[in-house]
Amino acid sequence: MSRRDSSRHVHHFPRFGVWLTHGPRVGYYFKSLQEIFPHLEPTGSGISSLWARTVALKYGCTVVVGYPEKVDVSDKWPASPEYYNSAIIVNQDGETSGGYRKSHLYSIDETWALEGQDGFFSGEIAGVDNAVLGISMDIA
Description:
12% of the residues lie in helices and 32% in strands. The chain contains two helices and eight strands, in the order E-E-H-E-H-E-E-E-E-E.
């Protein structure tokens, strides 16, 4: 599925007040940093974040989308690059309301990503009473 046509895959479940979608996909199985490098996105401002904002505004819902995050470490220079398997939470107004960095890496993540140090996202998300967010092995 391309990023361009991914919004066609949004489904509403009014009984639960939930919208589910398949987000933009770049793949998952990257054997090295070199393979994933072209797909890394700046924190909260890459193509996946733009897609999430667009869908949130179009459907008036909260969107959570995973993305390969590249952290700007220029303010910490000298510092090593930081890359994470991350998710961003965008509210119905298209604003970032939270984020999460995967903390229990799968072997394939270890080839390029650092472990998130903040634990699970636990907080308020508009329209959801309580929420906890994890990625893949975090919730396995």
